[in-house]
Specification:
single chain, mainly beta, nine-stranded antiparallel sheet, five-stranded mixed sheet, 2 helices, 13% helix
């Protein structure tokens, strides 16, 4: 027995306790990955090779390997917090330097960039004004907080049932202000190119001819060309708040039902004009029916909207950041990308929940979440440290016993040497 084995054991136990202490200290660090001390036995070099009676001279620390296992996911109240469930790392930049992290505690800086506590910027694919993702090289993600521009209504889709039992109105001609001149009506709000809202009303008038209905429309109470085949022009004043009735012609047209209730062909509503641009509106009543039941509006929708302010946003499982606007619309603001490595243990730890690429980690494979080996994202959540405190406390006791045992071997060797010195 020599002192070297015992001293190497003391050093190994001390290193193991340091690793355990670091794991315990970071038990509450978001995105932290615990480490494990790995050791190897040591033999003296021999020019003739080792023999069957060769005795080792102790142990040494082979490596400190981080354990990239999944941590628990905890919900938060911050919509910018993002947790990775599965493989991959967030790709961060700082003045051009690229680092990688599992810590998804993000915020927005004064310029609108998504950053971490160290002001490193999260990267991904940017979106243009229309919400189309630009999937080229990853860039620093920036939230566009400007108002969403209004969109003029281009199409209205309606699905109604006209009551075949209704009688033909006895009062003629059609007058939108006289309910005795039509059977039923419906209304929908439409928008011009400035985001001003207008009420488009449709009136259904049963014709004396069998299975024939006349369809009329008005906008803001002013008659327009009727549906479904005629097209006319409505002129709005510069304020976009009213109609000029002198430019709104009114000529009825018909919609015919066959006995077996075929779909109504697409119909066209007049052009709506604002002080800035003309917008053509098309209404589609395909699929409407004429049954012997009460008049009903089964669906009625339009594709326009007024301007909207950004009310909030969240991140989808695929990394797409979707903004919600005050006008009820939503739009992609960007998409987070993740990076994976062939050998994550080869990454260089930088502290601050960051790693950098190294020659042993391999090149980063960048892609969108849920593709390949990359995990999915969860918004308003963070990934906890994967440190198992119970296991670490047990390991601490074991390392303590290990340290004490090695100290005992040194004490025993000292006693043996004292015995030899005291020989007469």
């Amino acid at each position: 027995m020599s002192f070297q084995q015992g001293l190497s054991g003391l050093n190994a136990a001390s290193k193991q306790l340091e690793v355990i202490g670091n794991n315990v200290a970071n038990a509450n660090t978001v995105g932290f990955k615990q480490s494990r001390a790995e050791f190897a036995d040591v033999f003296a070099n021999s020019l003739t090779g080792g023999g069957g009676t060769q005795i080792g001279i102790g142990t040494n620390l082979s490596t400190v390997a981080q354990q990239f296992t999944q941590g628990n996911v905890t919900s938060t109240n911050n919509s910018l917090d993002i947790a990775i469930n599965g493989g991959g790392f967030f790709r961060m930049t700082n003045n051009g330097a690229v680092t990688y992290s599992r810590n998804g505690q993000f915020k927005m800086d004064k310029d609108g960039f998504i950053v971490d506590a160290a002001s490193k910027r999260l990267t991904g694919y940017a979106a243009d004004a229309a919400g189309t993702l630009q999937k080229g090289a990853p860039v620093d993600l920036k939230i566009n907080t400007s108002d969403l521009q209004p969109q003029a209504t281009a199409k209205i889709v309606g699905l109604v049932n006209l009551d075949s039992r209704k009688a033909v109105p006895t009062t003629t001609p059609f007058d939108p202000t006289d309910p005795t001149t039509y059977n039923d009506s419906t209304a929908v709000t439409v928008f011009d190119s400035l985001g001003n809202s207008h009420t488009l009303q449709t009136y259904f008038v049963k014709d004396p001819s069998p299975n024939v209905w006349k369809v009329y429309t008005t906008a803001d109470g002013i008659s327009t060309t009727t549906l479904p085949t005629a097209t006319a022009t409505m002129t709005f004043p510069a304020s976009g708040t009213g109609l000029n009735p002198t430019s709104v012609p009114a000529s009825p047209t018909t919609v015919t039902f066959a006995p077996k209730n075929p779909p109504i062909p697409p119909a066209t509503v007049p052009t709506v004009a604002t002080g800035a641009a003309n917008v053509s509106l098309t209404i589609d009543y395909s699929g409407s029916t004429q049954f012997g039941s009460n008049f009903s509006i089964n669906s009625l929708s339009q594709d326009g909207y007024t301007s909207g302010r950004l009310a909030g946003f969240n991140t989808g499982a695929d990394g797409t950041i979707v903004g919600r606007y005050s006008n009820g619309q939503s739009r992609a603001l960007g998409q987070v990308v993740l990076a994976s490595f062939a050998n994550p243990n080869g990454l260089q730890s930088l502290g601050g929940n960051a790693w950098s690429e190294s020659s042993t980690s391999g090149a980063p494979l960048v892609g969108v979440p849920s593709s390949g080996t990359l995990g999915v994202l969860q918004s308003s959540a963070v990934e906890d440290s994967n440190t198992d405190l119970t296991a670490e406390l047990v390991n601490m006791i074991t390392a303590q016993r290990y340290y004490q045992a090695n100290a005992q071997t040194i004490k025993t060797q000292d006693q043996v040497l004292q015995t030899l010195v005291n020989l007469r």
